[in-house]
Write a structure and sequence with these properties.
D-Maltodextrin-Binding Protein, domain 2, disordered C terminus, 11 strands, alpha/beta, single chain
Length: 316
């Protein structure tokens, strides 16, 4: 028995003194209203109305029950309103600030199609973690190692000039003894200035004989991109970023580097329903698991799964 529906019919009929008018006001048919009131009377074991040809008059028992029935209907309406309001409450989500405007806009639009309203906060990895810790956001896409990640983004090197070949080996940036001019640099964006990406690349730099200054952490990704666009330097980035900047991207030859992301929520939060609804949309926004074979073959995907050794160096 639908107790709330039965009480709604009872209250509406009692206020209008007619099953026909009361049913219409409650947006149900007369037969439904009659069945619901009859079910309520059967449950209580007492008649609520004295029925005549034209009128429905409350019995003494009906008058006693009416206030409580009104309270139940009102409470049900308040609960429904709160549920609708809660569904519309924005999910404040911290996202990487390297995501493109188009990607973020599409994520918001796709989320609305799933009944989720997003309020995005773009930030670097450490700031996203702090926003979550201080509960300024309900959830955050945190930078994590690949084995902890829900979404993985392959990284490679991209430059303004086409390097040729299927991969770009870091050792090819090494300056010879007779080298002239400024050494080529690898620019790291703040998003990738995390131990599981920065440290292996630093070890590789030392193993193949690059100078310390050839590996640079930029203040922001715009600065890093600008340096690469006006020089022979290369940018550590994803295929999607390289495409946006019109750079020539290749996977690294010696090692595989991957941006990993995991969705975390503030205290007592449960990200499962957001991950289930928006997982594919988040992956698309991040450029995760993208086939990175621009100007090369499918080795970019292979490089995301296993390290590749250069003949001249072994990096651990």
């Amino acid at each position: 028995m639908d107790l709330v529906g039965a009480c709604r019919a009872f209250v509406s009929v009692s206020e209008r003194g007619s099953f026909t008018v009361g049913a219409a006001a409650a947006r149900m048919s007369q037969s439904v209203a009659s069945r619901r009131v009859a079910a309520l009377e059967e449950r209580f074991g007492e008649r609520l109305f004295e029925r005549t040809a034209r009128r429905a008059v409350l019995t003494p028992f009906g008058r006693d029950m009416l206030p409580a029935a009104r309270q139940l209907v009102l409470a049900a309406d308040v609960l429904q309103h709160e549920a609708e309001t809660a569904k519309l409450k924005p999910w404040r989500l911290a996202v990487p600030d390297i995501c493109s405007t188009a990607g973020l806009a599409r994520l918001i639009a796709d989320a609305r199609g799933h009944g989720v309203t997003l309020d995005l906060r773009a930030a670097a990895p450490a700031e996203r973690a702090e926003l979550l810790h201080s509960q300024q956001v309900r959830a955050a896409l945190l930078a994590v190692p690949r084995d902890e990640a829900t979404w993985a983004v392959p990284l490679g090197l991209a430059g303004a000039q086409d390097p040729g070949g299927k991969r770009l080996y870091v050792e090819t940036l090494r300056m010879g003894r007779a080298g002239v001019g400024a050494p080529r640099r690898i620019w790291i964006q703040p998003e990738d200035d995390v131990p599981h990406i920065r440290d292996p690349l630093t070890r590789l730099r030392d193993a193949v004989g690059l100078r310390p200054a050839q590996l640079v952490v930029a203040a922001d990704h715009t600065t890093a991109a600008a340096e690469v666009l006006c020089s022979r330097d290369v940018l550590l980035c994803s295929p999607a970023q390289a495409r946006e900047l019109a750079l020539h991207w290749r996977p690294l030859g010696e090692i595989a580097l991957t941006r990993g992301f995991a969705l975390a929520t503030a205290v007592a939060g449960h990200p499962d329903h957001i991950r289930a609804r928006l997982g594919d949309d988040i992956a698309r926004c991040l450029g995760a698991n993208e086939g990175a074979n621009e100007g090369a073959d499918k080795s970019a995907n292979e490089g995301a799964d296993q390290g590749v050794k250069t003949p001249g160096a072994v990096v651990t």
